[in-house]
Each structure stands twice: as C-alpha cells, then as structure tokens.
Amino acid sequence: MTTHFQSTDLYGELPAPGYYPGTISSARWRNSESGHRMLQLLYAMRTVTPAYGCVAEYFVLEAATERGAAMARRRLAEVYRACGLDPQPGDSISPTQLVGSRLLLRLEHDEYRGQPRLRVVGHRRPEPEPELEPERNVEG
Question: Quick one: which of 122, 128, 118, 84 has its CA closest to 104?
C-alpha cells in the first residue's frame, strides 16, 4: 500500500484566529532548551483540520527572571480557572488534575523557526450546555 501527501499537508492554511474548544490531552513537566523547569500542556482540537488538531503550550515556571515566572504562573492560573478549578495561594501545581478538562482556547497565528503555527494567547471556560426542558404532552 502506498501513502500519498494530501493538499492540506503541503498548503494547509492555519485556522482563523479566535476561540476554539479544546481538551487537555497531556500535562507534563519538562525542561526548556535553557534548562529551566516548565510545564507542557497539549490540547486536542477537534474543530480544526487534523494538521492543527494538537496545539502545545508551555509555562516556564522557573524562568531566568522572577517577572517571567510570575507571568507564567498567572497564565497557568487562567488555565486552571478555565478548567473550572479554583487555585489558591499555597496550592501545589499538579498538572495531572488538568488532563481531560475542556476549555476554550484563544488562538493566534505565530511563526516558529520560519514555519507558521498556532499560538495559545488566552483561555476561557466554555459556556454551560443549555439544559433541555422535558417535552410536555400538550393536549389541545
């Protein structure tokens, strides 16, 4: 069996900037290229083309500067709240509790090493599903 490239593999356009539903499929500790401890979140995106169905976001929590680490913690707290969690001062950062959570991701276009990519720039809690009222048997 021969496998072939598809046009979306070669000329796929990035999805338009905006909010998209995503699910956190993975959350793990890693080291950045400069050796700092960071958290990597992978988001599964079902409403975009398969080529962009997985978006990564990184939170360098032990950055070279305190300001950088504080900004990363603030962004991560936004993720927790978007997932319906309520982090408090002194709580440990436990990435495993994020896995499986659904949220809305604000995506923008970016470039990394000369290649276009999606970048997560915001997080929001999804709107609650409307409750369906039971059908009433109306005699008339």
Answer: 122
